[in-house]
Design brief:
372 residues; Aspartate Aminotransferase, domain 1; 2 domains; binds pyridoxal-5'-phosphate; globular; 7-stranded mixed beta sheet; Aspartate Aminotransferase, domain 2; 4-stranded antiparallel beta sheet; 12 helices
């Protein structure tokens, strides 16, 4: 069956969870043990994920969103505080800042890396600023040295959103281990996944202990049913962690496969005029999350949305770039010229660890067919 004949059905999905090894065995083990809520896979995942990333403390939680919320709550943020965040991002970090009662202050992104611009961030600092929340977009790593210098000079905390950048590194240091806390998502589309799930890494024992209590209803660890703070149920289950442990066991292979997929894309996309790739600074070693490309409509028969529809008809599932917060009334943001220019031109192409070279050639051929 040709791609055209299957037009109604996506045959190359945008993302796909690829089971790397012992997922089924570990889930069955957790199931048979009857430890389906708490259980040893959770502690194992926390220990092994933190060790792999070189972080002293790891906490597993129910999602990337709850990871962000716990991190911001551990900082004690509330009304009157400001947090600097990029205006071009998946919106979870913005929503979680708002949820604490603090005010998100939107900075623009770099036109090449598409990540938080330290200069723009610096221009947003006021006497109310308490933290910077860089988002490592699409697997890139933000200019952390510049952001940490800014944070130190103004006495600000740094919470990294590494949901899209697990195992990407800069100068040999993993995304999510540069700041006071780093937050991760293990959603089904992510580099390692559990269906739903998240995590926080921190070098700071006090933040870790606060999050441990907040994750479990705010209940004191040494006094059951005693609460000094209002908390949540942001726990991960043993079944989800079992999947995560199996993924982590094969993480080197997953990283290798994703690098290969990225190399193939570079090889075949670089020859298509009008398509540009996100720039990774030389010191960044990315593990790409999704193949985000910027398209110049002058070289194609239509704009980004036209191209996505054409690819969809050819059986290739894609996603658009995120809308900048300034485009959505809800977030009441001032204009963000770079974010606005980039966002409308980004297409995220299929990306997962067993995507084949043949499939990538096919995707690139379909893009070429849309050329003007
Ligand atoms: C940058 C970013 N932050 C946070 C999240 C939220 O993660 P989750 O979906 O696990 O809650 C996501 C999810 O895609 C994300 O891309």
């Amino acid at each position: 069956m040709s791609l055209q004949e299957t037009s109604a059905r996506h045959i190359i999905p945008w993302a796909k969870p690829v089971f790397a090894g012992r997922e089924k065995e570990y889930v069955e083990d957790a199931f048979v043990s009857t430890r389906i809520s708490g259980g040893h896979y959770i502690e194992r995942f926390e220990r092994e994920f933190a060790a792999f990333c070189g972080s002293p403390h790891g906490l597993a939680v129910s999602s990337g969103t709850s990871a962000l919320y716990l991190a911001l709550r551990a900082l004690g943020l509330g009304p009157g505080d400001e947090v600097i965040v990029p205006g071009f991002t998946f919106v979870a970090p913005v929503n979680m800042i708002l949820e604490t009662g603090a005010t998100p202050v939107y900075a623009d992104v770099d036109p090449l890396t598409w990540c938080l611009d330290p200069v723009s961030a610096g221009g947003k600092v006021t006497r109310r600023t308490k933290a910077i929340l860089p988002v490592h977009l699409y697997g890139n790593v933000c200019h952390m040295q510049g952001l940490l210098d800014l944070a130190r000079s103004k006495n600000l905390c740094v919470v990294e959103d590494a949901a899209q950048a697990a195992f990407s590194s800069c100068q040999g240091r993993y995304a999510g281990t540069w700041g006071d806390m780093g937050c991760f998502s293990f959603h089904a589309t992510k580099t390692i996944f559990m269906g739903e799930g998240g995590g926080v890494l921190t070098p700071n024992r006090s933040y870790y202990e606060k999050m441990l209590v907040l994750r479990d209803h705010g209940m004191r660890k040494d006094k059951r049913y005693w609460h000094d703070v209002r908390g949540y149920n942001f726990r991960l289950t043993n079944l989800q962690a079992a999947v995560g442990c199996a993924q982590l066991e094969n993480v080197e292979r997953i990283i290798h496969c994703r690098r290969k997929v990225y190399e193939w894309y570079c090889q075949y996309l670089n020859v298509i005029e009008g398509v540009t790739l996100q720039v990774f600074r030389p010191e960044v070693t990315p593990v790409v999350w999704t193949m985000a490309v910027r398209v110049d409509p002058r070289y194609f028969k239509g704009d980004r949305d036209f191209m996505m529809k054409a690819l969809g008809r050819a059986g290739i599932e894609t996603r658009p770039g995120f809308y900048p917060v300034s485009a959505m009334e809800l977030y009441q943001a001032s204009p963000l010229p770079v974010a606005e220019e980039i966002a409308a031109r980004i297409i995220c192409l299929p990306f997962y660890s067993d995507l084949s070279e043949e499939q990538i050639v096919l995707i690139c051929e379909e893009i070429k067919k849309i050329r003007a």
